[in-house]
UniProtKB/TrEMBL annotation:
The organism of origin for this protein: Noccaea caerulescens
PANTHER family documented for this protein: BNAC05G11800D PROTEIN, LEUCINE-RICH REPEAT-CONTAINING PROTEIN 57
Name of the featured protein: Putative disease resistance protein
Coiled-coil residue spans: none
InterPro entries: LRR_dom_sf
Highest taxon in the source lineage: Eukaryota
Length: 303
């Protein structure tokens, strides 16, 4: 039933008592899933980008699915998000989580009441989130052991993403239009949480776009053994990348950004500058008849 235009949850499905797999992803016209708790044998339930994201009954229905093993879901109401993240059973079986359209501005969300073992992808979109709190158990250093993809877009209020230090297998990080984000990893919160963890050891792609207040990715250079691409655009306050001459093994790293930004980067030292200048791929923007066109050219920074 995924990507269909159904408007109501099919009542006939409730008669399929032995149903084990149900895919309702991208059914944005469905407003509720009342009664789904009667499908006791469901093991896989896919609800990513479905229309009932503000249904206050959703957590109550899902927590009754005792055999559920895999869940993908989109949530869009603060109270529902808090209920969901506070339910250990649902948190542990969630593979993909999208949180969107949260208001008011004082919204807070908390991770860490239990390890999200199954989580692979996390999306935060078009929300007012004042803070992401970490309620970490002292015995667990990895809250998101299998999280590989994080996308944050049009989020207001957030000032850092320090929770990512607990995602050791993160491979892709995309942060776009986070208007108040000043740091990716906060120095103060890092030392509060866990000094021994080194973030981004599996990171392959970092994309930062239209984050006007962003000043820092990390407080000091990091090793990036897997990094392949950095993309930066419209991040005028970000003047330095967390790189030194040994951060990335010799390979095909690409640093794609506006030419003026690449030319004005601050470096840890001359060795770092010499090491990464060949990785630059500069671009500029031409406005033709009111339409912005990106022209991308290989660019070697002049020493």
């Amino acid at each position: 039933l995924s990507r269909t235009r159904i408007k109501l949850f099919p009542v006939g499905l409730l008669k399929l008592k032995k149903l084990k797999y149900l895919n309702l992803e991208y059914t944005q016209m469905v407003q509720h899933i009342c009664g789904i708790s009667g499908l006791w044998h469901l093991r896989v339930l896919r609800l990513f980008v479905s229309g009932f994201k503000e249904d206050p009954c959703v957590v109550g229905e899902l927590r009754l699915l005792e055999n559920l093993e895999t869940l993908t879901i989109t949530l869009g109401l603060v109270s529902v998000v808090k209920q969901f993240l506070g339910n250990e059973k649902l948190v542990k079986c969630t593979r993909v989580l999208r949180i969107e359209n949260l208001t008011p501005r004082s919204s807070e969300i908390s991770f860490g009441t239990c390890t999200m073992d199954s989580l692979r992808e996390l999306y935060l979109d078009n929300s007012d989130i004042s803070e992401i709190k970490l309620e970490r158990r002292e015995t667990s250093l990895s809250l998101f052991p299998n999280l590989s993809y994080v996308s944050l877009e049009i989020c207001r209020g957030l000032r850092d993403l320090t929770l990512l230090i607990f995602a050791p297998n993160l491979t892709v990080l995309r942060v776009m239009s986070a208007s108040e984000l000043t740091e990716i990893i906060s120095k103060d919160k890092y030392y509060e949480q866990q000094q021994s963890l080194v973030p981004f050891q599996k990171l392959k792609e970092l994309r930062l776009d239209n984050n006007s207040m962003l000043k820092s990715i990390n407080m000091s250079p990091l090793p990036f053994p897997c990094l392949q691409k950095i993309f930066v655009n419209n991040c005028s306050n970000l003047r330095k990348l967390p790189l030194d001459s040994t951060s990335v093994a010799r390979g095909d790293l690409t640093i794609e950004a506006p030419i003026y930004w690449l030319e004005s980067l601050d470096w840890e030292d001359e060795a770092a500058k010499d090491r990464f200048s060949p990785s630059f791929k500069g671009f500029w923007r031409d406005d033709i008849d009111g339409v912005g066109i990106f022209r991308v050219n290989e660019y070697m920074k002049k020493k």
